[in-house]
Specification:
Blueprint lengths: L1 H8 L7 H9 L1 H6 L4 H4 L7 H11 L8 H14 L4 H13 L3 H11 L7 H13 L3 H14 L9 H11 L4 H12 L10 H17 L3 H8 L3 H4 L9 H13 L3 H16 L3 H21 L3 H8 L22 H14 L3
Length: about 350
C-alpha cells in the first residue's frame, strides 16, 4: 500500500483545491481583520498595504488564478511589508500545498531580519527546514521561538512529526498513542484551534498505524471521531483531509457516508473546466483507491491505480522520514529532539 501512502502524503494539485483551500482557510482571519473591506471599497481609497494585499489575493481568485503569479506577488508584498506575518503564513500555506518547501523557506528568510523579536517567525522558519530534512537547523529555530514564548501555537504541528518519528523508530505503540492523545487531539481544547488541521494530523497518523498493521489501535481512535467526520460541514476544507476522511469512513464501514463524500468530490471535479478536470483525473483515481482500500479491496486498489501510478506527479514529496535512509536509531533521536524542543 505504499502507493496509497505516497499519494496521500503528497496529495494536492497546483490549480484547484489547493488554491481554494488557501482562500477558505483564511476567510475568518480576513473577516476578523476587516481585510475583506478592501474588496468593497474603490481601489483609489485603499492604502498602499491594502493595494498590495489586493494584488496578492487577486492571483488566488477567479478563473485566471495562477500559482506562480500569487507567489511572486506575495514576495513583493512581503518585501514592502515584512512584518505582515499573516501574509507570510498565507504564502507558506500556498507553498505547502504545491510542494515548494524551498520557496517557503525563502519567504521566511526574506522577512526574518525584520522579525527577530517575534516568536512566530521561528516556528515558520522551523517548518520548511523540517520539510527539507534540515532537522538540526529546524531544532535550533524551534528553540529560539520557544525561548521567547514556550506556548507558541505555531509549533503544535511538531507533535505530528514527533509521533511519526517514534513510529519510524519502532517505539512502543503506547508512546505514539500518548503523543496522539495528549498533544495532537488536545489541540481541540484550544479556543484558537483549527479543527481541520487537527484532523489532518490525527487521521494521517492513524492511517500510518493502520498500514503498519496496527489496525486495532487505529480503529479504537477512529470510533469517537466518526460523528464529526460524517459532518459534511468539514468536508472540502482541504483535499488531503477529504482523502483521509474517505479512508476513515470506509475502513470503519461507514460506507454510505464514504460514498457521499466520494460522489461530492467527483461532482466538484466535474464542474471544473476541461483543463482542470484533466489535472484532477489522477486525484479522483486516488480518492477511489483510498475508498476501496478502506473497504479492504486491495486488488481493486491496484486495478484502480495501475502499476505505473506515481504520486509524485501531484506534488513534490516534502517531508518523509522514510526514503532518506534514516534508520530506527536516527529516527528515535529526531523524535527525542523534537519532543525536547517543546519543553526546554
Amino acid at each position: 500500500m505504499d502507493g496509497i501512502m505516497e499519494g496521500l502524503q503528497i496529495a494536492g494539485d497546483e490549480g484547484s483545491f489547493s488554491m481554494s483551500f488557501v482562500i477558505s482557510r483564511f476567510k475568518s482571519d480576513f473577516t476578523r481583520k476587516s481585510s475583506l473591506s478592501l474588496f468593497l471599497l474603490p481601489i483609489g481609497k485603499a492604502t498602499e498595504y491594502e493595494r498590495a494585499v489586493f494584488r496578492a489575493l487577486s492571483a488566488l481568485l477567479g478563473e485566471d488564478r495562477d500559482t506562480e503569479v500569487a507567489i511572486d506577488r506575495h514576495f513583493q508584498l512581503l518585501k514592502e511589508f515584512p512584518r505582515d506575518l499573516m501574509s507570510l503564513k498565507r504564502a507558506q500555506l500556498l507553498c505547502f500545498y504545491v510542494g515548494r518547501p524551498d520557496t517557503s523557506l525563502k519567504f521566511v528568510q526574506q522577512v526574518l531580519p525584520e522579525n527577530q523579536d517575534r516568536n512566530y517567525i521561528y516556528g515558520m522558519l522551523a517548518f520548511p527546514l523540517l520539510e527539507l530534512g534540515r532537522m538540526d537547523e529546524a531544532e535550533i529555530a524551534a528553540r529560539k521561538g520557544l525561548a521567547i514564548n514556550k506556548n507558541d501555537f505555531w509549533f503544535t504541528h511538531n507533535w505530528w512529526h514527533v509521533a511519526v518519528c517514534y513510529l519510524e523508530a519502532e517505539a512502543p505503540i503506547s508512546k505514539v498513542m500518548e503523543v496522539y492523545d495528549q498533544n495532537i487531539m488536545k489541540e481541540l481544547d484550544r479556543s484558537d484551534c483549527e479543527p481541520a488541521e487537527v484532523y489532518v494530523n490525527a487521521l494521517g497518523l492513524l492511517l500510518r498505524l493502520y498500514v503498519r498493521g496496527e489496525i486495532g489501535p487505529a480503529k479504537e481512535k477512529l470510533t469517537p471521531l466518526l460523528d464529526e467526520l460524517k459532518n459534511e460541514s468539514i468536508w472540502h476544507a482541504e483535499w488531503l483531509l477529504d482523502l483521509l476522511i474517505l479512508w476513515a469512513l470506509s475502513s470503519m464501514n461507514e460506507i454510505k457516508a464514504a460514498e457521499n463524500l466520494l460522489d461530492s468530490l467527483r461532482s466538484r471535479v466535474s464542474s471544473m473546466d476541461t483543463k482542470r478536470q484533466q489535472v484532477m483525473h489522477k486525484a479522483i483515481q486516488l480518492a477511489d483507491a483510498v475508498y476501496k482500500y478502506g473497504k479492504g479491496e486491495h486488488k481493486a486498489v491496484f486495478d484502480t491505480l495501475g502499476p505505473d501510478f506515481d504520486g509524485l506527479s501531484y506534488k513534490e514529496k516534502a517531508y518523509a522520514v522514510e526514503g532518506r535512509g534514516a534508520d530506527a536509531s536516527v529516527a528515535a533521536e529526531k523524535a527525542n529532539a523534537l519532543q525536547a524542543a517543546q519543553f526546554h
